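Hi R.,

As promised on Friday, here is the backbone we talked about, encoded as structure tokens. Could you run it through your design pipeline when you get a chance and send me back a sequence?
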């Protein structure tokens, strides 16, 4: 059921006492480093393995420029949003949901529904993608151990879905803090392994021929460039920063900045090393998953098998954590309607609906992951129409509306400029991503055993 828009009355802390989504799922007990763990899991995921592919559509110079620009702009954007949340908290209105923050600051009921629509698309999309990629990881390992085995991709997706159903019963976002710390370590682990594997491949006798040239036609270059920009924007996006900040024990003022610094330190280490090493080795032949480039269909693996196996296991484990993080918004919406805050979190009255609803949600994500193994192309569209509005445009608008900087100030115009530039990038990115979707349509097959690259 669609949640109701917020009451125009101030969001006082006492008004949350009857809100099971707030009291249970978005429980506010965390420290700044816990927010750092959640942020890192939300942003630093296996999608960073597509960075060499994104560079393939941009080349060295524009690739570095785009990666750095996206990093700086998103850090700035998330910092502004945390400032807006801090401002509202000091005014007695502690927002714990993106949709409530946007509706309150902008004074618009339709903004509430716009944000929840975009968030739902992103969160469900990431949930489907996490299950699909985890299933693909299992299939890669299975195919290596049993090349002629009878199990198909959808069998592995079903296995992952069962695991996700079990671990999704962790009741609160805060209860994921230990899992998300492990996720942070896993992201560092597989990034270092991939970089080492790329260096090994690039210096071996079987090193691929390097070609960094772009498409010959200007139109193809333009489309590929904006597709790459959409990919990088989606990699940096999270769309759930208010919900992450909600897990902090009040007062949250200043804590999110420390969490952001932790997260972006990991981003700097992992994103640049993976992008540079992968593109250096494979150039314009880089796959959308650099691990697949290291494991060509023909010929031997370009890196030691054990390195690739451990990398795939690390990726698989982190995908489970990512699926959990992005499902929290759906869970708080469901529990706000289904749970009774006056009874215990683990009472039969609340436990049974939680198990049923969360299991159904994961089953739905698993079903679509099995049915749509070409979801990577759809994710490009979701990134352009979802992450760009929530992470590159709305935070600037919210800051300007909240703090009302004079029109003569630098910060006002830098915010306006970012909004204009990324609105254009979002439109062009959507167009180029839809174009790729159409071009790849002939490869799509429901419940296929292969993921479309």
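Update: got your reply. Pasting your designed sequence below so it's all in one thread:
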């Amino acid at each position: 059921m669609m949640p109701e828009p917020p009451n125009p009355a101030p969001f006082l802390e006492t008004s949350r006492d009857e809100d099971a989504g707030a009291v249970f799922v978005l429980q506010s007990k965390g420290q700044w480093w816990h927010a750092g763990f959640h942020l890192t899991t939300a942003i630093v995921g296996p999608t960073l393995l597509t960075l060499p592919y994104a560079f393939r559509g941009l080349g060295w110079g524009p690739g570095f420029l785009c990666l750095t620009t996206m990093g700086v702009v998103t850090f700035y954007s998330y910092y502004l949003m945390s400032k807006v949340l801090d401002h509202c908290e000091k005014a007695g209105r502690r927002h714990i949901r993106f949709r409530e923050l946007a509706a309150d600051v902008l004074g618009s009921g339709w903004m509430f529904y716009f944000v929840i629509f975009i968030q739902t698309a992103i969160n469900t999309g990431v949930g489907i993608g996490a299950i699909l990629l985890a299933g693909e990881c299992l299939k890669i390992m299975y195919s290596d151990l049993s090349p002629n085995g009878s199990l198909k991709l959808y069998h592995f997706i079903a296995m992952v879905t069962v695991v996700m159903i079990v671990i999704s019963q962790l009741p609160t976002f805060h209860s994921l803090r230990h899992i998300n710390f492990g996720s942070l370590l896993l992201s560092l682990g597989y990034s270092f392994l991939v970089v080492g594997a790329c260096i090994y491949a690039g210096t071996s006798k079987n090193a691929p021929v390097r070609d960094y040239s772009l498409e010959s036609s200007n139109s193809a270059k333009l489309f590929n460039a904006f597709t790459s920009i959409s990919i990088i924007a989606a990699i940096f996006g999270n769309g759930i920063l208010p919900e992450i900040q909600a897990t902090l024990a009040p007062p949250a003022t200043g804590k999110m900045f420390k969490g952001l610094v932790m997260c972006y330190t990991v981003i700097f280490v992992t994103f640049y090393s993976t992008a540079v090493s992968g593109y250096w080795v494979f150039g314009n032949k880089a796959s959308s998953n650099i691990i697949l480039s290291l494991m060509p269909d023909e010929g031997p693996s370009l890196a030691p098998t054990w390195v690739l196996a451990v990398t795939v296991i690390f990726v698989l484990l982190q995908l489970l954590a990512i699926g959990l993080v992005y499902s929290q918004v759906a869970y708080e919406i469901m529990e706000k309607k289904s749970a009774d805050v006056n009874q215990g979190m683990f009472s039969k009255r609340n436990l049974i609906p939680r198990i049923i609803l969360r299991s159904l949600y994961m089953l739905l994500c698993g079903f679509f992951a099995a049915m749509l193994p070409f979801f990577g192309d759809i994710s490009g569209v979701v990134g352009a129409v979802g992450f760009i509005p929530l992470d590159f445009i709305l935070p600037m608008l919210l800051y300007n509306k909240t703090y009302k900087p004079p029109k003569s100030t630098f910060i006002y115009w830098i915010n306006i400029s970012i909004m204009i530039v990324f609105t254009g990038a979002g439109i062009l990115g959507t167009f180029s991503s839809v174009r790729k979707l159409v071009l790849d349509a002939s490869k799509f097959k429901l419940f296929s055993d292969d993921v479309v690259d």
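One thing I noticed while checking it: Residues 5-14 have pLDDT under 50 and may be disordered.

Thanks again,
M.
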